[in-house]
Design goal:
The protein is mostly beta strands. It contains one helix and seven strands. It has a four-stranded antiparallel sheet, with no helix packed on it. β3 and β4 form a beta hairpin. The longest helix is centred in the N-terminal third of the chain and has 13 residues, at 17-29. The chain is elongated, with a radius of gyration of 28 Å.
């Protein structure tokens, strides 16, 4: 039996079940090591993901966003006309996924010297403060009702 302890089960953290499922999905795909990648900050609100994809062409690569995931796929096709005496560079396919926070925009992708660069913009969050009005017993609702619980009105069963 596999028992899992969640750090998001506090009664003060409401509505984080989707976040927990996302963390599970990330931890399962974190073991994948191919292709290697870097993530760097570019400016105040910019990010760049660089993947080492030597040997892949534009036609071999696909970059998509699905919901809040950035998915990069690569598929090389074997050249049947070549005869290899030794094959150390395998034509292999890959899929690498990154979960994007709400508001992150994918600006574009470029292929340069065997590196696939994907540029992202992370919006700088503005503080959101909202005051909730507290209404009294008679405000915004029907007239308050009084329940009479005196012994002469409600006989005991």
């Amino acid at each position: 039996m596999n028992t899992r302890v969640s750090f998001l089960n506090s009664p003060f953290l409401l509505g984080f079940d989707q976040f927990e499922r996302t963390l599970d999905r990330i931890s399962k795909s974190a073991a994948e090591g191919y292709p290697p990648y870097n993530i760097e900050q570019i400016g105040e609100d910019g990010l760049r993901i660089s993947l080492a994809v030597a040997g892949f062409t534009f036609d071999d690569l696909q970059v998509q966003t699905e919901d809040n995931q950035l998915i990069i796929r690569g598929r090389q096709h074997d050249d049947k006309s070549r005869i290899y005496l030794h094959r150390g560079i395998a034509a292999r396919q890959f899929q690498r996924s990154f979960v994007l926070a709400d508001g992150i925009e994918v600006l574009g992708a470029s292929l340069d010297n065997g590196l696939l660069h994907i540029d992202l913009r992370r919006p700088i969050p503005e503080p959101k403060v909202r005051t909730i009005k507290i209404s009294g017993a008679g405000e915004g609702t029907a007239e308050p009702q009084t329940i009479d619980v005196s012994p002469d009105k409600n006989p005991a069963p």
